[in-house]
Every structure is written in structure tokens, then in C-alpha cells.
Amino acid sequence: SDFSFTTHCRKERADIRPPKTTSVKARARTLNLILKRWCVPRKSKSCCHYHTVLESVEEVLDHLCQDNYCDALFSSFPEQCPRCMCMNHGTSCSVCGLSFS
Q1: Rg of the chain's alpha carbons, rounded to an integer?
Q2: Is the model's pLDDT at 4 over the cut of 80?
Q3: What single-letter DSSP state applies at residue 6?
Q4: Spatial distance between the Cα atoms of 56 and 35, rounded to a whole number of angstroms
Q5: CB-based contacts of 80: which residues, under 8 Å, 6+ apart?
Q6: CB count, 10 Å around CB of 88?
Q7: Would you say 86 and 95 are in contact if contact means Cβ atoms under 8 Å apart?
Q8: Is this prediction's pTM over 0.90?
Q9: Fewest C-beta in 10 Å: which of 8, 58, 74, 84?
Q10: pLDDT per position as a tens digit, 65-91
């Protein structure tokens, strides 16, 4: 069958390869972009506000894990940036800014 829950569209080209794993460096850069969108009060015992916000990630992960929600159809965005290997939708990378087609 040509239908699959795990693919966005089936292409008949032989040069289509599965995406490469996004590096830790690129995942960290993406997470830093998200952290700047959060308003978290700075803890007085923290060395800096950045580390306060970074520590709040653990709270978020605990919340998501305790939710007992499972998304069997979860998938990454369909396009991979050839420069930073982050997944995107559209023709430009929202992480490094590269335009691609």
C-alpha cells in the first residue's frame, strides 16, 4: 500500500534518503531560541537568569512526562535543513536562516 502514517508523502525518487540525526549543537541552539520566549522569574540563588530559565526546562519535561499523553502519530517537520540538520516546514530554516528548496 502507498499509505503510511509515518510519511508525509511518498516520492518515487531514488535519491530521497531518510533525514540525518540533528546534532546536539543544533538541538541546543533550537532550545535556546525557545528559552528566550519564556518569562521565568530569576531565582536569587542562581548565578544568572539564563541558568534559571535553563533549569525550568526540567519542570517542563516532568510536566510533559507526567501528562501520560502519548502521540503515536508524532513526527518531525518534513524538510531538513542541509546546513544545521534541523527539521522545518517551508523553504527556509527557522534555526539558521538558510533558504533551500
Answers
A1: 18
A2: no
A3: T
A4: 9
A5: 19, 20, 86, 87, 88
A6: 19
A7: yes
A8: no
A9: 74
A10: 887 788 889 999 999 999 999 999 988
